[in-house]
Amino acid sequence: MTNPSYAAGPPREVFRQAEQKLLHRRARPPDMAGAVSDALLAALRGDPPPAGAVAAGRAIAAAVAAHAATFAPEGEPAYHDQRHQAEATVAMGWLCGRAHSLGLLSSRTAVAGVLAMAGHDLQHDGSWPSPGVLEARSAVLTAELVAGAGLDTATLAAVRRVILATDLLRPPAEREADDLLCRLAQEADIFGSLTPELGWQLSEALACEAHAGGHRFDPPVASFAGRLAMLRQQRHATQAGQDLGLADAVADQIAAMAACDDGNAEQGAARLDALPPAQARTEYAAALAAVVPQ
Predict the structure, then answer these.
(1) How far apart are the first and last CA of the chain?
(2) Beta-carbon neighbour count of residue 172 at 10 Å?
(3) Which residues contact 227 (CB under 8 A, 6 or more apart)?
(4) pTM (2 d.p.)
(5) Tens digit of each residue's pLDDT (9 = 90 or more) over 190-236
């Protein structure tokens, strides 16, 4: 299903195909085991997996699915459910595979990244505690599963480090020190949210989950102003992220909002938020289609 060819071609086309794959996956029943398998295939780019890597991936996938089964039907967290974890894992496979093909990651490091992403939200309960609390728990649980599969201490350390780095509320000095694998994980974690169609679904899910947990975003995360703020906050994309179209996706969506109000994205977002939702989405989609190079 997923393979290294997703890192080939013009970035915007790669990104478009990637979103379609994620939408197709979301339309089916959750498949964390398949996501991990696909991600390892993409990350390794034909290299054999390190001993224990496949077993570790299966163990993490099983733990994610087992946690999901503890909720009532349709009762998983609205955003941090197993679908998000599967999508982020697949995206990490694409990103690590591209970085591996560029000679920036070894196959062992790429595998560590995929395993970390598979477990980065392990046992997330939809709550909103202090920053880093849920990431720390996921890091411990995932590292235990990886250790149980017999992987080496360097892989364990990488898994823990990468999961902790997915806490985007860490102090800026810590974030500036992130290595490439951590940066790829941050891109993978938000990959789906940066897509123009699936991204809106995820914003609405995040808003629902946050509301249930008593958390409020300012501006509202599912608004155009909130989406613009999210796009503005993105760090400069890694080379792998650029090759998969992340930088173009961010720039194109900001440009589309600007096109909705004489070149000012903030005013364009505010104007769209003042319109009926269906009309706003239609106008924005037309603006986005107009700004994307053909």
Answers:
(1) 27
(2) 7
(3) 199, 200, 203, 221, 253, 269
(4) 0.96
(5) 999 999 999 999 999 999 999 998 988 999 999 999 999 999 999 99
